[in-house]
Amino acid sequence: MTLSGKAAIAGIGATEFSKDSGRSELRLAAECVSAAVRDAGLTPSDVDGLVTFTMDGNAEIAVARELGIPELSFFSRIHYGGGAAAATVQQAAMAVATGMADVVVAYRAFNERSGMRFGQVSSAAAHQVNTSGVDNSFHYPMGLATPAATVALVAQRYLHTYGATSEDFGRVAVVDRKHAATNPDAWFHGKPITLAEHQASRWVAEPLHLLDCCQESDGGVALVVTSAERARDLPNPPALITAAAQGSGPGQYIMTSYYRDDLAALPEMGVVGGQLWRQSGLARSDIDVAVLYDHFTPYVLMQLEELGFCGRGEAKDFVRDGALELDGALPLNPHGGQLGEAYIHGMNGIAEAVRQLRGTAVNQVGGAANVLVTAGTGVPTSGLILTAA
Amino acid sequence: MTTTAPVPTLYEDTAPYWRAAVEGRFALPRCRACRRFHHHPRAWCPYCWCTDLEWAEPSGRGIVLTYTTVHQPPSPAFTAPYVLAVIELAEGPRMMANVVDCAPDTVRVGTPVQVTFEPRGDVAIPQFRPREETPS
Ligand SMILES: [Zn+2]
């Protein structure tokens, strides 16, 4: 039994990406879900499943009421912040493949910039009466609370272990912003950066400069998943779900996995990668586009290593050689990533993967047949390989 | 917005750690079966699942395994720049702490450190300061 090829993404929808949407999160969710359903050539009564992040403020039933979706036979939520992104599609695909639902919409919508800011910290988080509260008690009182600082500790160890430099991190930001510059939907449309500007940007938490850290955004993205068979009869070319995986590693924490042997690694992404290659039967060289979760640049380099696109500690050389350019060996985030387009917890990257496979992306990679997408790193995470039908 | 520095919440398994710190003692659970210390304190030994634990006092010596100098603090309670570090204790366990009593730009991977205690509210936080290497 395999999930590979059983289900497909048949529709994508999004709001505009902004810093202040001026409307409720529920309205953003309703807008992106309805846009995705319309894009799939379906109606609300076709939808019988909804899946989102535990972090999302919009309950499945609220979204269903908003859109007039009459009945739901499958609803589910994935934990661990941005690590949920690809897993929402995995859950949807499993529901479709096992007959639990026919059409499942995965969504994520928030006012992350104008509402509650993730880059900031909630003091209540250290006092939760659960295991997260215990974990946080050994981090928050020392002033470890922002995502940037949690990543900086891993990034510093990575630099120390492999002799990489801040400029190697910067090259990821420069590529993302270059791609965003020619994407009209990107927040940083028309605003490329140079490596010198990256180096001159202020420290947030050493070795992370401001331009190593992704923006905060308002917006929503939704993805319609149905069976591969049904998807073939719908208006847009299906993006087949060739592989879908979740992963958690040894000594796993949420952003603070400092207590396992190798500090300069993301073993949870290794767990995801192993499954993606096994499920798909594809080789690294079969991947035409990589949409890697880029909330912080160092984790893009480490993902390249965990996924086996280069050896341990070799991502710096891989990136220096221009592999991530649109005409390179592994074009990265043609939409501009979260550093350049928007931070919609990885869901906008999955939508970009679908556009690449349809051949409708603004920065189209010619003949893209297989796209690998990852979810948030530093947390239990997930990934997909999508394939043109 | 938090303006006083956060204090840890004391849970059943972790309270003795914080209470010892108030008395200026650095105490960690040690397994009576495999003799290993662990951090953070748990209800049983994560290495051998033994529940027969004792509170004992490791040396308080360690090294900086990795660190960051924070320039953008999470709340006004923290004054930037300050150093966050993962400390590897001589006895093996790792823990999060601030490296204090030194200029932030003097901290490196491998800097030897010694535990010190920072009073805060009703508890105290085990922190670390650079330690002069003594020839052994
Ligand atoms: Zn033991």
From TrEMBL, chain A:
Record InterPro entries: Thiolase, Thiolase-like, Thiolase_C_2, Thiolase_N
Residue ranges constituting the Thiolase C-terminal domain according to the UniProt record: 261-379
A Pfam match: Thiolase_N
SUPFAM superfamilies (UniProt xref): Thiolase-like
Sequence ranges assigned to domain Thiolase N-terminal in this UniProt record: 24-226
UniProt cross-references to CDD domains, sorted A to Z: SCP-x_thiolase (cd00829)
One GO MF term attached to the UniProt entry: acyltransferase activity, transferring groups other than amino-acyl groups
Top-level taxonomic group: Bacteria
PANTHER family according to UniProt: ACETYL-COA C-ACETYLTRANSFERASE (PTHR42870), NON-SPECIFIC LIPID-TRANSFER PROTEIN-LIKE 2 (PTHR42870:SF1)
Name of the molecule in the record: Lipid-transfer protein
Organism: Prauserella muralis
UniProtKB/TrEMBL annotation, chain B:
Record-linked SUPFAM superfamilies: Nucleic acid-binding proteins
Protein's name according to its UniProt entry: Nucleic-acid-binding protein containing a Zn-ribbon
Native source species: Saccharomonospora amisosensis
Top-rank lineage group of the source organism: Bacteria
PANTHER family linked: BLR3430 PROTEIN
InterPro entries: ChsH2_C, ChsH2_Znr, NA-bd_OB-fold, Thioester_dehydratase-like
Location of the ChsH2 rubredoxin-like zinc ribbon domain: 18-54
Pfam families the UniProt entry points to: OB_ChsH2_C, zf-ChsH2
High-level lineage: Bacteria, Bacillati, Actinomycetota, Actinomycetes, Pseudonocardiales
Domain ChsH2 C-terminal OB-fold as annotated: residue spans: 55-118
